[in-house]
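Journal club side-thread
Mid-discussion, someone asked how the predicted structure for our own chain would compare to the paper's figures. Pasting it here so we can look after the session.
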Amino acid sequence: MMANNICLFRIADFNVRLVFQGSGPNSMRLLPSLAPFVLESPKEQEDGLLFSLTVDDTLKTIDKSRRHRIRIFDTGNGDTVVDRLDNGGYQFIIRDIDGTDCALLITDKSFQQCSCALNGNYNRRSFGLNNALMLAFAFAGSARESLLVHASLVRHKGKGYAFIAKSGTGKSTQVSSWLRYIPDCDLMNDDNPIVRIVDGKAFIYGSPWSGKTPCYRNVKAPLGALTRIDRAKVNSIERLSPVEAFVSVLPSCSSMKWDIDIYNKICNTVTRIIENVPVYTLHCLPDKEAALLCKNTIAQ
């Protein structure tokens, strides 16, 4: 699994390399959620890397004269500070819910070459490294028609059905109802699945990032539909027009509006996805009938 502190992973059919520099507290034990994605025979898998991330605690912040502040984002689990560098790359400072700096991440413009320094105890280092990997994956993947989507994902009869909505609106509730009331279903991911266009078709993958539900599965399925959850007093469902679908799906994708090149690629991939699969809005109560209505409409 590890050779010379180098680990290779296969995530959404992409190869990712992680390098731990030196001895100390940083190792694969910080990343239990990546265990299903480790390449056991990596020698022939170095070609075609999506990105490489080197963990080196001697890494220092870039001088202020070489960077400018984009903004500070509240992720819900802590703040992330984003600076753009004079070479087009980025510096991220990842903080936990207590405001503690957990990771410093420095990337090139394409996110193909990344470096990271970790700080604090096991929990903070694990949090920082997981978030650094997620950021690098989301934006390195933008050039390869890949999206990291904030969604809950269920598989039914071989196809993946993703549910998107603001946190707390009912994505996980809808998926739970499918698992409870609809045969031939299994949970693929509950927070951050990956959507890719491969040979002109849309596929969806489990990922090492699944929010509060520990569902870290190296699985893949054709994407059957995307459905936005909207709480209502009466159950109903509607298929969205292409413009409505684009406006509905884009906010659920990890993106950077201030980076025109990356943002345009993400928008193009969203367009390709909605050309391939239907997008719906489910107006619903958190009940069995809503799940059955949804399944009978979108799983055809």
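Post-session note: The first helix runs from residue 122 to 140.
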